Amino acid sequence: MAAWVPSDALGRRLLCGTEYATVRYVGSVPPTAGIWLGVEWDDPQRGKHDGTYEGTQYFKCRHPKGGSFIRPNKANFGVDFLTAVKDRYTLNDERDVQHGTENTLVFGKKTVEFVGMDSIAEQQRQLNQLVDISVRECAVSHAGQKEEISRTCANIRHINLSKNLLSSWETVTAIASQVQNLETLNISENKMKFPSTSTSVSAAFSKLRILALNQTEITWAEVLLCAPGWPALEELYLTSNNITVLERPDNVLQTLKLLDLSDNQLLDGNQLHLIAHLPRLEQLILRNTGISSIHFPDAGFGCKTKMFPSLKRLAINDNKISQWSSINELDKLPSLRSLQCHNNPVMDTEKNPETLRQLIIAKISQLEVLNKSEILPPERKGAELDYRKIFGNDWLAAGGNWNPEKNKPSEEFLAAHPRYPSLCLKYGAPEEGELKGRQPLTLKNQLLTLTIKCPENPEQKPVEKKLPESMTIQRVKGLLYRLLKIPGSELKLSYESSKLEGKEVELDNDLKPLQFYSIENGDCVLVRW
C-alpha cells in the first residue's frame, strides 16, 4: 500500500529519522516507479545532489549536495499541537500506567507529580491547569482541529515550540489564536515561510510580550510585516537569521524594550540608525553582528544624541570595533548604564586590562556596569582623575590652558577626548606638578608583587597581586572593590614591610602612586572597611 502524502506537502517540513528537511518536490522520478519526495536537508552533509538527477532538475538547493529523494514512507510530517502536549504531559498508553511512570507538571508556580492517571476527566483537569508548556522537538507541524486547544488547555500563557516542523507563520497563528492569554512564545529553530505582503492583523498575539524567532530565516522586512499583530511586544529575539539590512519601523514595535540581533552580519553600523527611534527600547544585544564602528551624527562633542532615548543596556561584544572614537560616541547615549564590549580589536590597543577598563569608564560618564562588573563611585573617581592626568600634556600641547580665556583645545583633541573639558570642570584642570614626568600609557611600569590581606575579615584568604608601581591609591581601591566584592563603603588601606618591623604605614592620599610610599616587592597591603 502506497504511503500517504499530504496534499500540501510541497514546502512542508519533515523528519527522516533524526534529520530535518524541507519538501521541494513531490512526484515521479523516471525511470523508477511511484511517488518520491525531493527534500533539501538542513544538514547539507546528509544530501547527495542539488535537486538534479540524471540530467533533469526536479528542484533547487542552496548547497550543491544539499538534496536527496526519499520515499514518502520514510517521512514524518509531524503531529498536531495537542497530540504533542498530551504525549508529553499525560500518560497515553497502558504501558506507562503499568510501569507507574512518574511525570512532573508545572501548574502556575506549583510543581505536581502524579502516577498513572486512570480517568480521562482527571487528564483533562490536569491539562486545563497547564500554564507553561514546552513541546520542544516534538515534531509539531499543525494546529489540529479548530478550538480544540482552547477547550483542552484554557490557561496556557507560555509556549516553547522550538525545533519542531512548523512550516509557516500561518500555522503559528492558528495555534496562538486558540490561546487567549499567550504572553511568551518561542518558535526558534523552525525554518518557516513568513508573509511577504501585509496581511490582516490577527488578534492571536494581542497579549504577547516575549517572542523568540532565532534561527527561523526571517528577514527584517518580514518582521515589520508581522509586527502590526504584536501590539504589546516587549522582547524580541532574532539571533542567527542572516539579517543584513534594517528598515525603520513605522508605527510598529513601539512597545519593544529588548531587541536581540546577535549573530546576524549587519551591513554596517549605520543600520542602527534605522532602529534608533524605538521610544521604549532599553536593551539592545548586538553580539557578533560584524559592526566596525558606531556613530551618532546628530550630536556634537559632549552633547547627547536623540537616538536610542531609553537605551540602558548595550552589548557589542565579539565585533570589529577598532577605534576609540566609537567608544567616545557611546557617551552621547542619554540613558546608557550598562555596556558589554569584550572581544573587539580596540580592546587590544591597551595590554593592561585594568587600564583598559579605566579608559572606558572615564570616556562614558553615566556607565554603572562594564562587562557585567559594577562600577562603584571610588573606581569612577579614580578613573576620571587618572584620565585627566594621563592626557594632560596632550591637552596643553593642543591649546589647553589653565587660564579659561586662553583655553582653546583643538578640534582634533576634542574629537579624541570629548569628555576632557567636563572632567576639568568636575575636578579642575590638571596642575603643572601633576603632569611633570608623566609616563606614557604604553611604557611598561615596574610591577610590584604584593600580598593583599583583610585583617578584620579572617574568612577572606590573602591574595597575591601584581600591580604597577605607578598605580594610584585610588585605582588600587577600585581594583580591590571588585576583587574582594566589597560593598560600597570607604576603604582604608595601609601596608606592612619586613623592613619596618611590624609598623603599619597608611596609604592616605588617593592621588599618590604606590611608589610614593616606597612600597616594595613582597610587602603586604592591609584592607579595612
Descriptive overview:
The N and C termini lie far apart (83 Å). The radius of gyration is 31 Å and the shape is elongated. α8 packs across α9. By secondary structure, it is an alpha/beta fold. It is 21% helix and 19% strand. The protein folds into four domains: 12-74, CAP Gly-rich-like domain (SH3 type barrels, Roll), CATH 2.30.30.190; 79-91 and 120-377, Ribonuclease Inhibitor (Leucine-rich repeat, LRR (right-handed beta-alpha superhelix)); 378-427, no CATH class; 447-528, Phosphatidylinositol 3-kinase Catalytic Subunit, Chain A, domain 1 (Ubiquitin-like (UB roll), Roll). 34% of the residues are buried. The protein has helices at 81-89, 94-99, 120-129, 148-152, 169-176, 220-226, 324-330, 353-363, 377-390, 392-397, 411-416, 420-427, 432-435, 473-483; strands spanning 13-16, 19-27, 36-41, 52-53, 56-57, 67-70, 79-80, 102-107, 110-115, 132-134, 140-142, 158-160, 184-186, 210-212, 235-237, 258-260, 283-285, 313-315, 338-340, 369-370, 373-374, 447-453, 463-468, 492-496, 504-506, 524-528. α8 (353-363) links the parallel β19 and β20. Strands 10-12-13-14-15-16-17-18-19-20-21 form an eleven-stranded mixed sheet, with helices on one face.
What's the N-to-C terminus distance?
Answer: 83 Å
Global shape = elongated
Main sheet, how many strands, which sense, barrel?
11 strands, mixed
- Text of the CATH class of the largest domain: Alpha Beta
Give the DSSP E fraction (strand runs of 2 or more residues). Answer: 15-25%
How many domains, as an integer? 4
CATH topology of the largest domain: Leucine-rich repeat, LRR (right-handed beta-alpha superhelix)
**Rg calculated over all Cα atoms:** 31 Å
Q: What is the correct CATH architecture of the largest domain?
A: Alpha-Beta Horseshoe
Structural class by SSE content: alpha/beta
Q: CATH H-level name of the largest domain... which superfamily? A: Ribonuclease Inhibitor
Helix content: 10-25%
Question: What is the β-strand count?
Answer: 26
- Count of DSSP-assigned helices: 14
Task: Give the spatial strand order of the biggest sheet.
Answer: 10-12-13-14-15-16-17-18-19-20-21
On the 0 to 100 scale, the average pLDDT is 89
